[in-house]
Amino acid sequence: MQPEIPAKAGTSRLIREGHRRRLREKFIKSGLKGFHDYEIIELLLTLGTPQKDCKQQAKEAIKRFKTLRGVLEAPSEELQGIDGIGPHNAFGIKLVQEVAREFLKERILDKPLCRSSQQAFDYLYHSMRDLKKEVFKVIFLDAQNQVIEVEDLFEGTLTLSAIYPREVIKSAIKHNAASLIFAHNHPSGNPEPSRGDKEITQDLVFAGSIMQIKVLDHIIIGNDRYFSFADEGLIEEYELDFSSFKSRKGEAGIKK
What we know:
Layout: H1 7-30, H2 37-48, H3 55-65, H4 68-73, H5 76-79, H6 87-110, H7 117-128, E1 135-141, E2 147-155, H8 165-174, E3 179-185, H9 195-210, E4 214-221, E5 226-228, H10 234-255
Parallel strand pairs: 3-4
Antiparallel strand pairs: 1-2, 1-3, 4-5
Helix pairs in contact: 2-3, 2-6, 6-7, 8-9, 9-10
């Protein structure tokens, strides 16, 4: 025999179930078009607790983290700081974030990058835009500019002493890469390269040239924008610097 549910509680439950059902039907019919940000978050929160009303928690999350993106990128412990959001609720938020990242990574692995900084940025921005510390990624490509792998090699305060060209080249050889694209983020949001960024990039171009591994680009991720060393002509400039250095060294050897 089923326990008797008080009329008021039963009515509230039916209202919640009807609301969630309408949201899901709306999504199935037309995707996220017409959804408020809090309704998207509400759907994600109910993935972990499908029987719980999450509307108020969703509105509070948007209020606290300002935007949909802010909620999606918020650490789990901060999400759980909102009354009524527990680890099961936060699960839905983190799940969709990680699925999106993996989807974008798989898409970039399935397509040639060629020399398009924009295509690389489309993937990198999602995975790097809200990182609190600097992360240095390397995209390894084959002779047809097909992506072989994407790896995080260094993190923290990225300086000349923190990034080792030897480790980069070692990883490139391990992946049998013909060319490389570097990327790192600026947590400040300003993607303009520092003097150190330029020196690091020049060193990496020189190291790659010695090993006959081409550096295609170094992309700095900022807030909704990026800086491409290739687009600005700096990669070509460093390659010419290396060729000039090599020529001078050869001439000096002949004179001896």
